[in-house]
Amino acid sequence: QVQLVQSGAEVKKPGASVKVSCKASAYTFTNYYIHWVRQAPGQGLEWMGRINPTSGGTDYAQKFQGRVTVTRDTSIRTAYMELSRLRSDDTAIYYCARATYYYDDSASPAGYYFDYWGQGTLVSVSS
Amino acid sequence: QSVLTQPPSASGTPGQRVTISCSGWGSNVGSNTVNWYQQVPGTAPRVLIYNNNQRPAGVPDRFSGSKSGTSASLAISGLQSEDEGDYYCAAWDDSLNGPVVFGGGTKLTVL
Fold first, then answer.
1. Which residues of A touch B86 (CB under 8 A)?
2. What pLDDT digit, counting tens, does each position of A80-91 carry?
3. What's the pLDDT score for residue B97?
4. Using CA atoms, how far apart are residues A33 and A75, in angstroms rounded to an integer?
């Protein structure tokens, strides 16, 4: 069955960087974008960025531009999210998710949804 | 502050029908489709509805979605105790907010 398995919890100091991995299995890795979504304690979901595993092309939320980098290694079916210059309000659970497109009647992409999620990685930022 | 607006809480008794609203703007809900996710505490979200009203395989038909203009709704009929959790709407966004925006989430309590 399709699985996304993320790396373990991290504790970081303000100003440091963190890199979270997301290993995919049981599907063709290059056929689906991988997205990163975070959730601060007691808060809602926040989209951060995505990567096209085939081309390596990325898009990021404006809020994280310049601080987040999403990469992938197709040889080991793994995507990575690196967040730099960490602050205390970056404390959150970070999820990777696979995106599946759906199409309208003219076969044009109408949207996508996140059909599989990683288990989440808690990143704690504290001095 | 989330781009899409949801009520912070909703509740119902077993067997009842509950609806959760999601209000957006022309750049997101008004011009793109809406998805809904359920999150049980301590677990990752799972998709309930995509493309406004489509259910992925395995999602009970008690869950239904609709959209009109810049608003969308999730309806849960025959409420069950296991439906308790947080519900989020999401949509593509054509503005600088995008490409994906979420609602702030609605905590559903089954009384």
1. 44
2. 999 999 999 999
3. 66
4. 16
Q: How confident is the model at residue B110, as a pLDDT?
A: 96
Q: Which of B2, B33, B92 sits opposite A44 (nearest CB)?
A: B2
Helix (H, G, I), strand (E, B), or coil: what is residue A29? helix
Q: Mean pLDDT, chain B, as a whole number?
A: 95
Distance CA A31, CA A54 (A): 7
Residues 18-77 of A with CB under 8 A from B: 35, 44-47, 50, 59, 62
How many angstroms separate the CA atoms of A38 and A67, rounded? Answer: 14
Q: Which residue type does B26 have?
A: G
CA distances from B41 to A73, B84, B108 (A): 31, 9, 11
Contact across the interface for B50 and A95, Cβ inside 8 Å: no
The reply to whether A103 touches chain B by the CB within 8 Å rule is: no
How confident is residue B39, by pLDDT bands cut at 50, 70 and 90?
very high
- Three-state SS at A25: strand
What is the Cα–Cα distance from B41 to A71, expressed in whole angstroms?
29
Find how far residue B81's CA is from the centre of its chain: 18
Residue B52, classified by CB atoms within 10 Å of its CB into exposed (0-12), middle (13-18) or buried (19+), is: buried
A18-71 pLDDT per residue, tens: 999 999 999 999 999 999 999 999 999 999 999 999 999 999 999 999 999 999
